[in-house]
Amino acid sequence: MHRRPVCAYTIVDDIKINSRLTEGEDIADLAAFVLAWLAWKAETRHEPESREGFTPEQRFFVGYRSGLRAPSPGGSAGEGPTDAHSPGKYRVNGLVVNMPEFERAFSCKAAQPMVRENRCRVW
User: Fold this and answer.
1) Is 120 exposed, middle or buried (CB count within 10 Å of its CB: 0-12, 13-18, 19+)?
2) Residue ranges covered by each domain of the chain
3) Closest CA to 73 of 83, 63, 64
4) Cβ-based neighbours of 81, under 8 Å, separated by 6 or more
């Protein structure tokens, strides 16, 4: 049986997220985020205008980040190895690196920190 590698996201010092424990929630977050993107694109029939220096697509991603400002489950370093939820920072960054739409919205280039060569896909 081929086992996927454990995520190497480091919370602090040598404390890492236990991705085998968070995998179910991470997949659910990614699926919900992809559906939110598809719904937003379907309901945006006209081209929304840029505001405050952000394109509409960039604002979509920034809005998601803003929604996770409150402490989330797994938010402290002590909970990271045992919590089924990734800390908030990784619930954002760990998702958007899997979305080519994020890469296009922010003009990310290969080998930059927010670009993942092997993206996770839910569909």
Assistant:
1) middle
2) 10-44+52-105
3) 83
4) 15, 16, 17, 18, 21
For helices 19-43 and 56-67, give the axis angle rounded to 10 degrees. 140
Residues whose CB falls within 8 Å of the CB of residue 122, separated by 6 or more in sequence, listed in order: 27, 30, 31, 34
SS3 51: strand
Full-model pTM: 0.72
Q: Is residue 25 packed enough to be buried (19+ CB in 10 Å), middle (13-18) or exposed (0-12)?
A: middle
Buried b (16+ CB within 10 A) or exposed e, 36-73: ebeeeeeeeeeeeeeeeeeeebbbbbeebeeeeeeebe
Q: Over the stretch 81-109, which tens digit does the pLDDT of each residue have?
A: 677 878 878 888 888 888 999 999 999 99
Q: Phi and psi at residue 56, in whole multiples of 5°?
A: -55, -40
Helices (H), the chain: 19-43, 56-67, 88-96, 100-105
Scan for tokens 């699926």, then name that residue: 31
Q: Which amino acid is at 43?
A: E
Q: Look up residue 45 and give its two tokens.
A: 């029939």
